[in-house]
Amino acid sequence: MRAFTVHTGLVAPMDRANVDTDMIIPKQFLKSIKRSGFGPNLFDELRYLDEGQPGQDCANRPLNPEFPLNWPRYEGASVLLARENFGCGSSREHAPWALDDYGFRAIIAPSYADIFFNNCFKNGLLPIVFEENIVDDLFKEAEIAEGYELIVDLPRQVVVKPSGEELPFEIDEFRKHCLLEGLDEIGLTLKETDAIRGYESQREKTCPWLFHAIK
Amino acid sequence: MAGKTLYDKLWDAHLVKQREDGSALIYIDRHILHEVTSPQAFEGLRLAGRKPWRLDVNVATPDHNISTDSAERAAGVDAIPDETSRIQVKTLDENCDYFGIREFKMNEMGQGIVHVMGPELGASLPGMTVVCGDSHTATHGAFACLAHGIGTSEVEHVLATQCLVTQKMKNMLIRVDGTLGPGVTAKDVVLAIIGEIGTAGGTGYAIEFAGQVFRDMSIEGRMTVCNMAIEAGARVGMVAVDDKSIDYFKGRRFAPTGEMWDQAVEYWRTLQSDDDAVFDATVELDGSAIVPQVSWGTSPEMVAPVTGSIPRPEDETDPTKRQGIERALKYMGLVGGSPISDIPVDRVFIGSCTNSRIEDLRAAAAVAKGRKVANSVKQVLVVPGSQMVKAQAESEGLDKIFIAAGMDWREPGCSMCLAMNADRLGAGEHCASTSNRNFEGRQGNGGRTHLVSPAMAAAAAIAGHITDVRTLD
Ligand code: SF4
Question: Which of B:76-95 have CB within 8 Å of A?
Fold first, then answer.
């Protein structure tokens, strides 16, 4: 996994609550067997005026002029500002893959859906939680100042505003460590092979039916 | 010391290692795979030169984007018309063959929607940890499984290590006492709960459903309820084990037998919250006050009793919520203040892992029997959740009742729940649907979903609009 340390990026707003995974990446794109290439279809139904199809060249599709990500001022944005319960709905990892492929590295919102939140970390994408009023302020500032950038400093766990003001955020240690080092979680877990084998042999004694089921 | 909740017990029984940083490794007993969220996980395994840790815990089946049309299904995988769907289904077949994972293939007895086929085969059993790359995995909590939806990276992680890296959730108790009135079903109960606590109400919690209403409910009804825990934000929803749960598994294909069955039952009986267990949050509802529910908006919390009306945005004081209601009404083409029962329906969908089991089909058939679908309704899809449900329904003659009423009887799969195949709504069409999500575009671009129970869906098909099944003439 790609490591995340300090990232400076242009902020783009996604000003609605309960943005679900269908909205982030509509289901017709889930048929791909790859992990990449979802960026052009991020927020497809909001971004384009026609119905998107997998494999289509998006360059010639009619853009929805009302959707902020289509505005020149947000071109190249890599920090997404969002509202409560972002990423609700399905477990599809295509949602963080699409955000990542588009170029987002960090998301800031008051809250996230559990599975989505978890999936972000597996893909080097940092979801940051701030209180609602802080998020509100960020929305206002990003709207007023064109070219509004934030510095996301993971080692110090702060987001730095253009004014220099620092906003501290929480992140659990294990996730921080994995992100900073870009660690392969499977490799880490496989270091616990003895613990897993030990668990299995204990469990097989008390619950033997769990050890020969599907054939 | 306070007693343990059901969730605490399941967690403790599966804890391989608690790490100092708060994360934990928990052991996974059953892993169910389907075509959409597994290809990248298998690819990851191959690229890293890894093998599945244990083969016999995995079971796979295609469900999300296969056709439900009999002729198309009979033509086999190679004839799936949509190329990307075909590749995805074939990729699942190839991966399962390559790694040696038991797959119930597209037209094989046993195939079905992951959360329908798992329990009915006894592949998921009480007390197991069950994971699947699909957020409705909580379904299996209906018989005290600790069941989570997971993402594709976690699918790969579980395949490779048999463990999940996770954190313990908080405990929430949702108690619904009283007795449900006639015509009120498990679906109405769970929609009422989501209406009450909201789509983020359960975020960070493992929910246990308790109280008279759930004790009276069948295992299939409990599956409907737990299935939608994720719609309330909770990854996990559970009901404690009782005699019904044990009876349900007796004789199932992968359930233990003989002495091992007795040993299992003895363990399963311990899968209850202790009387003195402490929950971090408790929600109580009166079951006898619940009436059939209908969603009117674009989020499962936007529900109302069928006897009620669509909310007016101007009555909402919270600006974010008001904006949400306005946006939803615009998308749905509805006007605040009008009666729920005035909502017209263009199509009806009876199916999905929420409501495609035999009891659901029986409930819909009881309404459809001797009646006809309204002329204004373009299509009524009845999609059984699995090959076994289909066979059972046909042996009871339910298919004939549906067909006589003017409904389409289909092959098992997810179908119009997420519209990855050809079953979908046209833009602007309203659908009475027994599925679980009414997000914008979920059932087809521009489609408008109204979540209801199977009986209510059948009633809407007959009336041509949303109607109270209890007063259908
Ligand atoms: S029926 Fe719908 S919710 Fe259930 S597994 Fe299929 S797509 Fe997911």
Answer: 82, 84-85, 87-88, 91
CA-CA-CA-CA torsion sign (B153, B159, B165, B169): positive
Say if residues A78 and A104 touch (Cβ distance below 8 Å). yes
Dihedral pair phi/psi, residue A195, rounded to 5°: -65, -40
What pLDDT digit, counting tens, does each position of B190-221 carry? Answer: 999 999 999 999 999 999 999 999 999 999 99
Work out whether strand B303-305 and strand B293-295 pair parallel, antiparallel, or are unpaired: antiparallel
CA distance B379 to chain A (A): 22
Residue nearest to atom 6 of ligand 1 (CA): B414
Cα separation, A167 vs B160, in Å, equals 38
Task: Tell me which chain A residues have a C-beta less than 8 angstroms from the C-beta of B119.
Answer: none
Residue whose pair of structure tokens reads 């929430």 in the numeric block: B172
Residue type, B443: Q
Asked if B377 and B429 count as a contact pair (C-beta separation under 8 A), the reply is no
Between the CA of B30 and the centroid of ligand 1 the distance, in Å, is: 18
CB-nearest partner of A189 from B29, B161, B437: B161
Q: What is the pLDDT of residues A164-186, one digit of tens each?
A: 999 999 999 889 999 999 888 89
Interface-testing mutation among A189, A197, A202, A211, with chain B (most B C-beta atoms within 10 A): A189
The sign one gets for the Cα dihedral A93, A98, A99, A105 is positive
Window 299-338 of B, Cβ < 8 Å to A: 299, 320, 323-324, 327
Structure pTM?
A: 0.91
Q: How far apart are CA A91 and CA A116, in angstroms?
A: 7
Distance CA A177, CA A171 (A): 10
Q: Cβ contacts of residue A178 below 8 Å, gap of 6+?
A: A1, A121, A185, A188
Q: Which atom of ligand 1 is nearest to the CA of B435?
A: 2
